């Protein structure tokens, strides 16, 4: 089932400049259907900028991004969402005045899936169950623990039934027990054949979850391959640890 | 996933679906409808039981009920505070005043709605795509801008600053028209509240970044609602024009209308459809007294009242009652979260 | 030619008002919708000193400006600080302060109406012609411009050459980072807010020499000031000065060529152009 060869997301020579600073410099990679791709690199290497360009929060200065047959670079974020791309955020973003269930519903109305009414609520309930949040549908988001908030955010992203899912440091800030649960949850998604890009610092998660990794440093791609291969690549180690310790 | 993506369905089909969605009524919906109908029916009886003075107060209450509720339709869920109600109110009034010798009153009300709507669309398209703070600033001087242009236009065309609006309309008719308009505002508000548009706006009000990434065309949703809200303000201005019989720019575009609308809505609370109404009734009554007793200090007192509300009842009376009853969920009151999303999105753009 | 000169003279006075707003919004993070009312109140005060005591507007500055400083300090301390403290984030503070200062603006209007009534007021001071390149300009406009320029330059130097100025600029860049290097952010903000009000009041005193005022005019000045800082940048004094001149020129051109009653339309046209073309301001940086 894995990697049937279809390219889900093609990133081609993408560059982003902020004034004089080049945050992402001519990066290219492909994400295949049903693949889980890790986007890793030290802080400030341009990963989040990359994710923001894919999801449409920024438009790239140069280059092209395609989602299946559709060119999505240059489209507004809401249009990209409609084409089937969903994301979570580095710092969890809730809709505080909406109930937990409504938070999930928000993902399934205007984007790639467009449900409404009873159908929507049932669908959202199912997703809450899937991510393991139960019995708090009508509670406010503030009543949830941090990991449950992250789960709800994940359910919101899943509600659009995305063709490609972007998880931006979804595991960050979790304690060791929560981390295990979190990894298991993503693994479950992977098992279902979801196509996912994860940006992550947690190396355990990368080893467990990723089919392949793209490593960025200072805005350029320095390695690509299986987690095992890239994590032993001398240049990757140098990027993380610096020259003297390498 | 299913492939019958609703996007591929036609606009008509989607609208039909939306209508059907709106028509599925729960028990509490039905109760609200019945209560609302009874309320409006009782309100409509006022001209039969009261004298001229009570009716004129009733007209003020009905007028501000429409203005404050329609203001809340936009500013409540989005938290974009509009300070420009008077601009739309005045446009409506002036359309009637300027055209009364040429066209029937009813046609002018329709034109007023159209002119107000187009103007709101232009303002919305210019300001609502970017940070909310620009919208606030833009609306701040808008009434004065239109007033200046009106005065100038009248001078150019050689007409007088003031215009006579002599329509044979008695106070009872005006009152019923306003009550009917209020009923329409409530129905529209109720329908928006249960529609996708309403849900989109609540998401936008919470976090615009999430809204965009969920596939919402945030600018369009905001502009549509701002237009709806402004059309009601324009119609109100058009309807009450005959009451003044002599309309002049300073009256039509008075900044106090904008100010009072914001006060009343905040006093009542902007997170329930009937919230503004709770503010309108006591405030209008109190205002009648203050205006009669201390006309020289009325502006000052108005400002003081406003500050008291901002500092001590930030969630409005409705919020206060609900929090006292303990059932009040923190809903991000009028004083919270405005622009916050836009600011946040601006920040993330700089990240 | 006369449009150019009158426009620049007017722009110079607007620059004062804009710097006042910049201090309040850029440093103290309060978007003060009552700023225009402070300006109008100062103009009324200057009028009163002139008609009742024959005080020259320049002497009045010595009274009006410290008074405005004190009043604005009090407003910040009693009304804004509680909002700053209860705000959980910048966005909330922005909303709270917009609503609160909107209310304060009506209180000011109410006080002015109660004290001075609703009439238009003006007085005649230095209303003599002064010739530049053969054309006559009101000496009062020129005197107001020179005084405004002196205050602007003084303020600029103070902000850039003194320790306290540096403190304010640090808070303007980042209140939280300024707090980390043991700057008392609340005090710096109060100072900036009060100083901003004082500078705006100076602008009002100067404008009163050649403009006619009534109690309801404040909102126009607030709007003009906000348009200037949107154009020039919230934290860029030079940008604000350039923007002030642009607004002064645009207004004068409209007043002379079209109609003096349409000056607000000139400000709105500039505002619209900025919104549609360069929402980041004249000198703002944009990505890409």
Question: Your description of this structure?
Answer:
The complex is a heterotrimer of chains A (246), B (351) and C (288). Chain A is an alpha/beta fold and 246 residues long. Chain A is 35% helix and 25% strand. In chain A, the strands form two sheets. A six-stranded mixed beta sheet of chain A has the order 6-7-8-3-9-10, sandwiched between helices. The longest helix of chain A has 16 residues, at 176-191. Chain B contains 18 helices and two strands. In chain C, 75% of the residues lie in helices and 3% in strands. Chain C contains eleven helices and two strands. Chain C has helices at 2-27, 35-53, 57-86, 90-116, 139-161, 163-173, 175-180, 185-207, 218-232, 237-257, 263-277; strands at 129-132, 135-138. In chain C, strand 1 and strand 2 form a beta hairpin. The radius of gyration of chain C is 18 Å and the shape is globular. The chains are: A alpha/beta (246), B mainly alpha (351), C mainly alpha (288). Chains in contact: A-B, A-C, B-C. The interface between B and C is large, with 51 and 49 residues.
Descriptive labels:
heterotrimer; A: 246 residues; alpha/beta; six-stranded mixed sheet; four-stranded antiparallel sheet; globular; C: 288 residues; mainly alpha; ABC transporter involved in vitamin B12 uptake, BtuC; two-stranded antiparallel sheet; 11 helices
């Amino acid at each position: 089932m894995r990697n049937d060869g279809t390219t889900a997301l093609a990133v081609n020579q993408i560059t982003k400049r902020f004034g004089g600073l080049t945050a992402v410099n001519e990066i290219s990679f492909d994400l295949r259907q049903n693949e889980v791709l890790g986007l890793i690199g030290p802080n400030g290497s341009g990963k989040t900028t990359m994710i923001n360009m894919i999801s449409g929060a920024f438009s790239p200065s140069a280059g092209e991004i395609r989602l299946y047959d559709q060119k999505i670079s240059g489209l507004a974020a809401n249009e990209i969402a409609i084409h089937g791309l969903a994301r979570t955020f580095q710092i969890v973003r809730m809709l505080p005045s909406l109930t937990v269930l409504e938070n999930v519903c928000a993902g399934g109305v205007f984007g790639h899936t467009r449900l409404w009414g009873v159908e929507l609520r049932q669908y959202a309930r199912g997703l809450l169950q899937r991510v393991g949040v139960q019995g708090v549908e009508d509670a406010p988001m503030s009543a949830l623990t941090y990991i449950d908030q992250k789960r709800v955010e994940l359910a919101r992203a899943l509600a659009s039934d995305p063709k490609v899912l972007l998880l931006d440091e979804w595991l960050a800030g979790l304690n060791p027990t929560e981390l295990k649960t979190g990894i298991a949850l993503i693994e479950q998604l992977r098992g279902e054949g979801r196509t996912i890009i994860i940006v992550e610092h947690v190396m355990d998660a990368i080893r467990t979850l990723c089919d392949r990794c793209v490593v960025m440093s200072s805005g350029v791609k320095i390695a690509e391959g299986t987690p095992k291969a890239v994590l032993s690549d001398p240049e990757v180690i140098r990027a993380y640890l610096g020259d003297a310790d390498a | 996933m299913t492939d019958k993506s609703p996007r591929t369905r036609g606009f008509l089909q989607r609208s039909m679906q939306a209508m059907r969605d709106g028509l599925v009524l729960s028990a509490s919906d039905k109760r609200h409808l019945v209560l609302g109908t009874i309320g409006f029916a009782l309100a409509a009886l006022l001209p039969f039981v009261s004298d001229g003075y009570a009716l004129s107060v009733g007209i003020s209450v009905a007028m501000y009920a429409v203005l404050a509720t329609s203001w809340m339709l936009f500013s409540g869920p989005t938290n974009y505070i509009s300070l420009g109600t008077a601009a739309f109110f005045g446009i409506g009034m002036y359309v009637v005043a300027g055209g009364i010798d040429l066209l029937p009153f009813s046609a002018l009300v329709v034109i007023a709605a159209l002119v107000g709507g187009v103007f709101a669309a232009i303002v919305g398209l210019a300001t609502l795509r970017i940070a909310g703070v620009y919208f606030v600033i833009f609306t701040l001087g808008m009434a004065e801008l239109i007033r200046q242009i009106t005065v100038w236009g009248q001078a150019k065309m050689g007409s007088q600053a003031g215009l006579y609006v002599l329509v044979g309309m008695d106070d009872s008719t005006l009152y019923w028209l306003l009550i009917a308009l209020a009923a329409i505002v409530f129905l529209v508000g109720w329908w928006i509240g249960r529609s996708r548009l309403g849900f989109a706006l609540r998401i936008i009000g919470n976090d615009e970044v999430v809204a965009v990434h969920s596939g919402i065309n945030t600018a369009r949703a905001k502009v549509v609602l701002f237009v709806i809200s402004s059309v009601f303000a324009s119609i109100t201005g058009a309807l009450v024009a005959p009451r003044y019989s002599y309309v002049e720019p300073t009256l039509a575009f008075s900044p106090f209308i904008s100010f009072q609308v914001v006060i009343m809505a905040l006093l009542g609370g902007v997170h329930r459809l009937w919230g503004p109404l709770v503010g309108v009734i006591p405030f209008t009554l109190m205002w009648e007294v203050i205006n009669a007793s201390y006309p020289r200090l009325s502006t000052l007192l108005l400002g003081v009242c406003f500050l008291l509300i901002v500092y001590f009842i930030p969630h409005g009376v409705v919020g206060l009652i609900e929090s006292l009853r303990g059932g009040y969920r923190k809903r991000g009151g009028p004083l919270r979260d405005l622009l916050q999303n836009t600011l946040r999105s601006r920040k993330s753009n700089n990240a | 030619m006369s449009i150019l000169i009158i426009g620049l003279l007017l722009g110079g006075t607007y620059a004062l008002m804009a710097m006042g707003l910049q201090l309040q919004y850029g440093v103290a993070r309060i978007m003060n919708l009552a700023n225009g009312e402070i300006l109008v109140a100062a103009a009324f005060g200057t009028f009163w000193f002139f008609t009742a005591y024959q005080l020259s507007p320049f002497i009045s500055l010595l009274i009006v400006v410290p008074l405005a400083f004190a009043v604005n300090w009090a407003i910040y301390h009693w009304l804004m600080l509680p909002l700053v403290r209860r705000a959980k984030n910048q966005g909330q503070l922005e909303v709270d302060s917009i609503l609160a200062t909107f209310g304060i603006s009506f209180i000011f209007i109410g006080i002015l109406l109660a004290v001075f009534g609703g009439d238009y007021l003006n007085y005649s001071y230095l209303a003599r012609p002064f010739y530049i390149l053969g054309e006559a300009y009101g000496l009062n406009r020129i005197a107001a411009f020179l005084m405004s320029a002196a205050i602007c330059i003084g303020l600029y130097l103070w902000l850039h050459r003194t320790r306290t100025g540096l403190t304010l600029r640090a808070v303007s860049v980042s209140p939280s980072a300024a707090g980390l290097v043991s700057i008392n952010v609340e005090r710096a903000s109060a100072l900036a807010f009060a100083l901003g009000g004082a500078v705006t009041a100076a602008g009002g005193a100067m404008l009163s020499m050649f403009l006619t005022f009534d109690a309801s005019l404040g909102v126009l000045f607030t709007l003009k000031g906000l348009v200037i800082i949107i154009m020039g940048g919230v934290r860029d004094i030079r940008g604000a000065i350039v923007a002030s001149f642009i607004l002064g020129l645009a207004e004068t051109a409209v007043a002379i060529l079209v109609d003096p009653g349409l000056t607000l339309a000139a400000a709105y046209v500039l505002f619209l152009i900025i919104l549609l073309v360069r929402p980041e301001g004249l000198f703002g940086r944009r990505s890409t």
